[in-house]
Amino acid sequence: RKPQGIISLHESCRVSRAEGSNTFEIATSGKMYYLTADSQPLVEEWVRVLQNVVQRNALRLLLSRQDQAPTLQGWLVKVKHGHSRRVWCVLLGKMFVYFRSPNEQNPLGQLNMRDSRVEEVKNSSVCSS
Predict the structure, then answer these.
(1) CB-based contacts of 67: which residues, under 8 Å, 6+ apart?
(2) How buried is 113 (Cβ within 10 angstroms: 0-12 exposed, 13-18 middle, 19+ buried)?
(3) Cβ–Cβ contacts within 10 Å for residue 107, how many?
(4) Is the pTM of this model over 0.85?
(5) In whole angstroms, what is the distance from residue 59 CA to residue 93 CA?
(6) What is the spatial distance between Cα 90 and Cα 16, in angstroms, rounded to a whole number?
(7) N- to C-terminal Cα distance for the chain?
(8) Is 17 left (phi over 0), alpha (psi -120 to 50) or beta?
């Protein structure tokens, strides 16, 4: 089948869901798109995936800028579900990005620090190897 249209998910897009309905919206610089799914779980999945795409596109743009020097970078230990591993971390503006190594181009993940809280962990059970 031929697509009826294309919505470009640029870094300036906003994807959000309407409370209490199966509808979500994609806001671009020039137009608003309203899409409806068959169920709430499906809406939540679409919104999560599309927000991830928009965030990855913004991250790619941020990482490609030659004039953007990292605020801070270095090796840290990331702990998730009791498992730890060393990752190369870069703070670019308000984006905290982590990679397998300093030479990697594709990040393992990122956090928007705008909505985050940072606390020091005094008694960590993480063992370094």
Answers:
(1) none
(2) middle
(3) 19
(4) no
(5) 11
(6) 28
(7) 53
(8) beta
